[in-house]
Write a structure and sequence with these properties.
heterodimer; A: 257 residues; mainly alpha; 11 helices; B: 233 residues; 76% helix; 0% strand
C-alpha cells in the first residue's frame, strides 16, 4: 500500500521538475537582452522589496507569538491564530481590498493599489504569521527547558538567553519557513494582482500578463524569467542549507534525549 | 490590554465580510467544480500523504534521503514558475482544458505539504507504536488505529489542501484554458466587473468551505472514535 502511494507521489512530484526541464528547453536560443527593459527591472526591485519585508516581518512576529505561547501557556492565542488559516489567500486579499480601498477608516492612511504595496505586505503577513507560528511552535514544544534554566542561572541578559538557549534550535524551522515563504510570495499572481498597481508589477503578475496577452508572442520572456527565478531560489536553498548543515546536524543530535 | 490588541489585529480583516450584503447564493457549475475539486484533492492528499510518509518512516532503503529531498524540494520552487513549464509539458499530452490536467497541477501544489505534515505527525507518534499495528489487517489497521491516532493530522492535511486549492486562480485559469470555472476564477471576474455583492458572496463561499469541511471531518471522526471505543467494552 505504502509502496504504490510512494510511486504515485514520486510521479506527481516529478512534474515540477519536468516543468523546469521544459522551461530550459524553451529558453534555448532566447535573446536574454530582451529582459533588460524598464518593466522587468522595476518588477525585480519591487518583488525583492515586497518578498523580503513580508517574509522578515512574518518570521519575527510568528516566532515572537510562538515564544509567548510557549512561555505563558496562552492557549487562547494559539487557537485564535488558527483563524486566518481558514481563509484562502484570494479571499484574504479581497477582504483587505474591501477594507483598504474606500469608505473604511483606514482609507487615506494606508490604501490598496498604491506604489509601496503596503497592503500586499500586510495581507501576506496576516496570512503567513500563523504558518510560521505552526512551524516554530513544534520546536518550542520539544525544547529542553534545561538550556533556558541554565542560561538564567548564569545570569545572562534576556537577549543572550534567547541567543544561546533558543536560537540554535530555531535555525532549522526558520530556514525552512524562510524559503517556503520566499518561493511562495515572490512569484505569485493572486494577491498582488488584486492589491498591486500596474507599474511596477510583481514578477508573477508581470510574467502571467506577458504570457497570456498578445497571442503568446511574449511568452518566451515569461519562460525565461520563471526559469531564472526558479534557479535563483534553488541556488539560495542549496547554499543556505549547505552552510548550516554542520550546525543543524549537531543540534539534531543534541536534541535527542 | 495587549491581549485585546493582538486579538483585534488577528480578527479585524473579517470585518470586511460584514460591510455589505452578499448576493443571494445559487448553486451553479463554478461552485460544483470547486466542491468536487476540494473533496477529491482532500481525499487524494490524505491517501498519498499518509502512504508516502509511512514508506519514509519504515524504509531501510538507501534512497530514503533522496526521496525526502525530492518530496520536500517542490515547496521551495515557485509554483507559478514551474507551472509555465508544466503547461507546456501537459499541453503535449492534451491535458490542458481538462479536469485531469487541473487536478494534477493542484495536486502538485498541495502534496508536498501533506507528506510533510503526515511525516511529522508519525514521527511524533513514534515508530514502536506504529510497528505494532503491522500485525493487523490493512482495513482494521487504518480504521481502528491509524485514523483515530492521526485524526488531527488528517484534518490539518484536508484544511491545508482545501485552502491552497481555493487560492489558485492562475493555475486553474491557465491549465483549464478558461473552460473550467471555479469560485476563485469567478471572484476575479466579479472583481473586475466591480460587482461588489457577487465578489463578497464568493469570498463567503471561499471561507465557509474550509470551515465546514474542518468541522464536518471533526464531527465524523468524533462519531467514529466513539464507535471504536465502544468495541473495547
Amino acid at each position: 500500500m505504502s509502496r504504490s502511494s510512494l510511486w504515485i507521489s514520486l510521479f506527481v512530484l516529478a512534474l515540477p521538475f519536468t516543468g523546469v526541464a521544459f522551461l530550459i528547453y524553451e529558453t534555448v536560443g532566447f535573446d536574454w537582452s530582451e529582459l533588460n527593459d524598464a518593466a522587468w527591472r522595476a518588477s525585480l526591485a519591487v518583488t525583492l522589496y515586497v518578498t523580503l519585508v513580508a517574509t522578515a516581518v512574518s518570521l519575527v512576529i510568528g516566532t515572537w507569538l510562538a515564544r509567548s505561547v510557549y512561555r505563558r501557556r496562552s492557549t487562547w492565542l494559539a487557537s485564535l491564530l488558527r483563524w486566518p488559516m481558514f481563509v484562502p489567500h484570494v479571499a484574504a486579499a479581497y477582504l483587505f481590498y474591501v477594507l483598504f480601498s474606500g469608505g473604511f477608516p483606514f482609507y487615506g492612511v494606508v490604501e490598496a493599489n498604491e506604489r509601496h504595496h503596503l497592503v500586499v505586505i500586510l495581507t501576506y503577513v496576516w496570512k503567513e504569521v500563523p504558518f510560521v507560528f505552526l512551524m516554530v511552535i513544534g520546536t518550542y514544544a520539544q525544547l529542553n527547558r534545561g538550556y533556558v534554566d541554565m542560561a538564567k542561572t548564569l545570569q545572562l541578559t534576556p537577549f543572550e538567553q534567547f541567543k544561546v538557549a533558543e536560537w540554535p534550535f530555531l535555525v532549522k524551522p526558520l530556514l525552512d519557513s524562510f524559503w517556503v515563504l520566499v518561493a511562495f510570495i515572490s512569484f505569485a499572481y493572486e494577491v498582488p494582482a488584486l492589491l498591486g498597481v500596474t507599474f511596477p508589477e510583481l514578477l508573477g503578475v508581470l510574467a502571467y500578463e506577458r504570457l497570456t496577452t498578445g497571442l503568446f508572442l511574449n511568452a518566451f520572456e515569461s519562460y525565461a524569467v520563471a526559469l531564472v527565478w526558479t534557479l535563483f531560489i534553488f541556488i539560495g536553498v542549496i547554499g543556505s542549507y549547505t552552510l548550516t548543515a554542520k550546525r543543524r546536524r549537531r543540534i539534531e543530535r543534541g536534541m535527542r534525549r | 490590554m495587549s491581549r485585546f490588541l493582538t486579538a483585534g489585529l488577528i480578527l479585524f480583516p473579517f470585518v470586511g465580510l460584514f460591510l455589505a450584503f452578499p448576493a443571494t447564493f445559487n448553486w451553479d457549475e463554478a461552485i460544483g467544480n470547486t466542491v468536487v475539486y476540494v473533496l477529491v484533492l482532500g481525499f487524494v492528499n490524505v491517501w498519498l500523504g499518509i502512504g508516502t510518509a509511512w514508506w519514509l518512516m519504515f524504509t531501510e532503503s538507501r534512497w530514503k534521503t533522496a526521496v525526502e529531498w525530492f518530496t520536500f524540494l517542490p515547496l521551495f520552487i515557485p509554483v507559478l514558475a514551474t507551472m509555465f513549464g508544466m503547461y507546456i509539458a501537459l499541453a503535449q499530452l492534451g491535458l490542458v482544458g481538462t479536469h485531469i490536467g487541473v487536478g494534477l497541477v493542484l495536486l502538485v501544489t498541495t502534496l508536498p505539504y501533506s507528506i510533510r505534515l503526515a511525516y511529522n505527525a508519525m514521527y511524533v507518534i513514534g515508530r514502536p507504536l506504529l510497528e505494532q499495528t503491522l500485525t493487523l489487517a490493512p482495513w482494521s489497521r487504518f480504521g481502528l488505529v491509524l485514523f483515530p491516532l492521526l485524526k488531527e493530522t488528517i484534518r490539518t492535511i484536508v484544511l491545508f489542501s482545501t485552502v491552497i486549492v481555493l487560492s489558485q486562480f492562475v493555475l486553474v485559469q491557465l491549465m483549464g484554458a478558461g473552460l473550467i470555472p471555479t469560485v476563485t476564477t469567478r471572484l476575479y471576474q466579479a472583481y473586475a466587473g466591480n460587482d461588489f455583492a457577487l465578489a463578497l458572496q464568493n469570498t463567503w463561499v471561499l471561507i465557509l468551505v474550509p470551515v465546514l469541511l474542518y468541522l464536518g471531518i471533526g464531527g465524523l471522526f468524533g462519531i467514529w472514535i466513539r464507535l471504536v471505543k465502544g468495541r473495547l467494552q
